Known about the structure:
Helix content of chain B: over 70%
Order of helices and strands of chain A: EEHHEEH
Low-confidence stretches of chain B: 1-9, 197-207, 239-249
Structural class of chain A: alpha+beta
Number of strands of chain A: 4
Radius of gyration of chain B: 29 Å
Mean pLDDT of chain B: 76
Order of helices and strands of chain B: HHHHHHH
Largest sheet of chain B: none
Strand content of chain B: under 5%
Largest interface: A-B, 29 and 31 residues
Largest sheet of chain A: 4 strands, mixed
Oligomer: heterodimer
Number of helices of chain B: 7
Strand content of chain A: 15-25%
Strand order of the largest sheet of chain A: 3-2-1-4
Mean pLDDT of chain A: 90
Number of strands of chain B: 0
Structural class of chain B: mainly alpha
Amino acid sequence: MIVRIATEGQFEVEDGSVDKLNELDNACVAAVDAGDEASFHQNYEAMLTLVRDHGTELGDDDLHESALILPPPDLTFEEAGEQFTGEGLIPD
Amino acid sequence: MPGIGGRFSTVVKAKVSKMLDRAEDPAETLDYSYQKQLESLQNVKKGIADVVTAKKRLQMQSDKLEQSVVKLDTQARQALAAGQEDLARTALERKQGLQAELQSLDTQVAELESQQQRLTDSEKKLRAKIEAFRTKKEVIKAQYSAAEAQVRISEAATGVGEQMADVGLAMQRAVDKTENMKARADAVAELEAAGTFEDLTQLGEGGDDIDRQLKELTTGTQVDDELAKMKAELGSGSAPAQQIEGGQA
């Protein structure tokens, strides 16, 4: 699955990592709902790290579309409130 | 699909398909979208230049604040040497306020710097993708039937479109940041310009609106400490140690 981290780049992520991403996505939604900023940042950072470390960055000349686009890494907690709601970035 | 992922992709797809709908002949579509991509690249370059200009302006503002800090420090010393402790205190309060602003401004300029770097990286990726699209369009034109060409054009154009939207997002974030910082820096500069006293005698009681605002930015203890230090350095005749203890009144 191709995942883009907005303002950063595109990564090919193994399908095996998608479940873990979904789990972290749900944790982000829960943290936002609970108003727990620290927990949100921790989980969102884990999502980014998972994509960066377990994904392979696509070449600059690759024209593939992303299946999932994560918000920019410098997302504020306030902005997160608009993004991580309901089913999160990855619908269950 | 909720979230930026969903909204973001939808916007990209809508834009791309709108663009592709305009032309009927695949070859024409290809050339048209390539043309549009090149135009967007020019806009991105211009956008980055604007961010750099805004950053430089903020850096200049920071330099100016720095000078004011030095000036206020000198004025505080002069006031103290002349035995006008109230004036010295006011100058130091202003100095503390400006220093706090300066620090936050510098942090923000540094953040902007890294945002600019990301923007430049994004632009580079976009350029590479447009170049890849150019190569691909020639292959599509030469090798595929009209129906199949449409599908492949759409795929390739979406890839470029996504990158374009991403640069757009990075740019928007950088611009928002500069706008916020600029507004704040302007406000401080105004405060500072109105409040810096060219002539110590004009200061009077030091109780005007600007003074109060600047005072709110500072903490009394810091000012007391600095005043005490300054007194010690100047070796002012009025028993510094005692004054520090009683200085809170």
